[in-house]
Amino acid sequence: MTRAPAESEGGPATEGGRAAPGRDRREKTAHRLLNSSARKSYDPEIDIDWDAPLVEGKRYLPEHRSSLYGTALWERLSPEQRIELGKHEIASIATNGLWFEILLMQMLLREIYKADPTSGFAQYALTEIADECRHSTMFARMTERIGCPPYGPLPWRRRMAKLLPLISYGPAMYGAILVAEEILDRLQREQMNDPEVQPLVRMVNRIHVLEEARHVTFAREEVTRGVARLSGPELKYQQWLLAAVSHEVVQSLINPHVYKAVGIRPRDGYRAAMANPYYHETLRYAGERIMGFLDDNGLIGSVGMPLWRRAFLVADR
Q: Are 307 and 243 in contact (CB under 8 A)?
């Protein structure tokens, strides 16, 4: 299968000795995002009061976003246990978000390695990596502060993901980045303004949402630019690769071991969550915007549809 050459490979793309229009747009976007980063970025070490006490009785996750909400297992939990489960679920989401960002940084570094370092594209990609380093530290500190284990993905998924930076490229690479970022973004936008959620969690969400808006703009433009060069078997491969990676992203959000915190066997909790229509609805809500964008750009194809459905990002018909 032939890979379409990236614009950054082999120097600038040109038309008649001038920069190609696509490259002009890419550079304009990169410089605009660089200026935005210079004007408004956060340092979680300074901008979050890590010593502030947690608020008694405040949730870590809205109840209706818990993976067990509405199930028989949920009904057996006391109000205190429901808060405890939400705490461990938010820690799982945060430490899996950290894992996603480490994979993203590896993929962006591969892009920068072959790019012109004086280009706006390369410089913004480096700026985004710096943002993601701070976000990863922030998620780790939050998990430690609320007293939860660093759940992350299951060990077999962590091992499998080592292949991702090696096999992922083009629109599927940026599309997978968007799936991870925009699913978290949609949930965090809801939570950051919820007065029932812990102030620490709300602040972490607010910082991540504000800075990820730039990353989303960058990745969406790379998807649109890359798809325009695809056709035939290569498009089918990109559709399948994006669906496969997105399935693993969604399935990894809640580590089954979180259920131990409230006396539920991981196997029982996981099965209940995977069969829970309320949780399916949460995932579709979280993925609604990015799925529409990917579909509009031709990246949701029949070749990956079974995986999209198993990820609960597309409803069964």
A: yes
